[in-house]
Amino acid sequence: MIPNLATTFATIPAASATSAIAATEPTLVLWNPHSGRAAAAGQLRQQLAALRDVRLVDTQHAEHIQQLAAEAIQQGFTHVIAAGGDGTVNAAVNGLMPLRQRPSFAVLPIGTANDFAQTLAIPDDLALAASVAFGGERRRIDVIELQTEQRRRWFANMAAGGNSDEVTRQLTREVKQRWGPLCYLRGAISVLTDLKEFEAKIRLDDGSEESWSVWNVIVANGRTNAGHLQLAPRANPEDGLLDLILIRDGELLDVPALVVQYAISDYIHSDLVRYRQARSLRFDSQPPMRFSIDGEAVDEPPTGFRVVPGALQMAVGPQYVANPPTAHPRR
Questions:
Q1: Which phi and psi angles does 171 have, rounded to 5°?
Q2: Is residue 324 part of a domain?
Q3: What is the pTM of this model?
Q4: Which InterPro entries does the UniProt entry name for this protein (predicted)?
């Protein structure tokens, strides 16, 4: 059994935790040098690169990350660490998921938002996060498959479609680096002045088709998106279910009320929100709705989503809780 070093390291200074990190198995670290905190983490990068049984690769782009992750087992690595943001994690997940035998997986959150790392309770302090990546408890975590007419892709955290996707498409690398997590708020400002309406048809599992007029559609495995916004506060990444959040079409004046309810309580109880759970769903909309998955735009509109239960064995932080304290509503 791999020792749970993270619990021990959480009680000692970060500098000491960094010096105590050691690899217990052949480990591939996919280091994204373009991530938001990569430059500030230079010392940690040097230390990880010097560890025995560790190969650290500076990645070039998403396809490079995906290829390296896909070849990890073949190259003799039994553990893969994605050092970057949610886009880096997503690229690695898409490299791992087609494999019949997958290495264990961990996240080192050096990106802009690091949303999935928050669901896994990975410490924001990078020295402590590194200790989790190498020695934290490991749990079987679900992954969601997104299907289009031409291909399939996977994501660990969240897919957002409709007007929320438009926010993602406005965020260049330069905007992310300049604004940090606030870049998602900046991107939302212009979208709020021109909200589009979508007529969506949705079938959950083997149920009947439902029709909704919506602004946004969110399919979640993790709990936060767009810079730690709790969009799916009741999601459990181990329950074999996806969480579906529909933001219904309304008047522009309804938006401030929804924002206030989000700020002071569980916004899913708003009359503008419908919250469902399912193992799979079929999806269609007019006009066609494009999605972003874990912060990366998808060019083709999806036709469906399904959960792959326990797909990845992942390192989690010492404060990780799979099941949120409140039960899922059926609305």
A1: -95, 100
A2: no
A3: 0.81
A4: ATP-NAD_kinase_N, Diacylglycerol/lipid_kinase, Diacylglycerol_kinase_cat_dom, Lipid_Phosphate_FormReg, NAD/diacylglycerol_kinase_sf, YegS/DAGK_C
What would the pLDDT profile of 78-121 be if each residue is shown by its tens digit? 999 999 999 999 999 999 999 999 999 999 999 988 999 999 99
Residues 258 and 302 in one domain: yes
Report the DSSP beta bridge partners of residue 203. 209, 282
In the chain, what is the straight-line distance between the N-terminal and C-terminal CA atoms, in Å? Answer: 42
Query: Residue 19, exposed/middle/buried by CB under 10 A (0-12, 13-18, 19+)?
Result: exposed
Which domain range does residue 266 map to? Answer: 146-311
Identify the pLDDT of residue 225.
78
In a domain, 77, yes or no: yes
Across the strands, what pairs with 246? 217, 274
Residue 216 in any domain: the answer is yes
User: What sign has the CA pseudo-torsion 108, 113, 115, 116?
Assistant: negative
- Is 328 among the domain residues? no
In a 3-state reduction of DSSP, which class is residue 64? helix
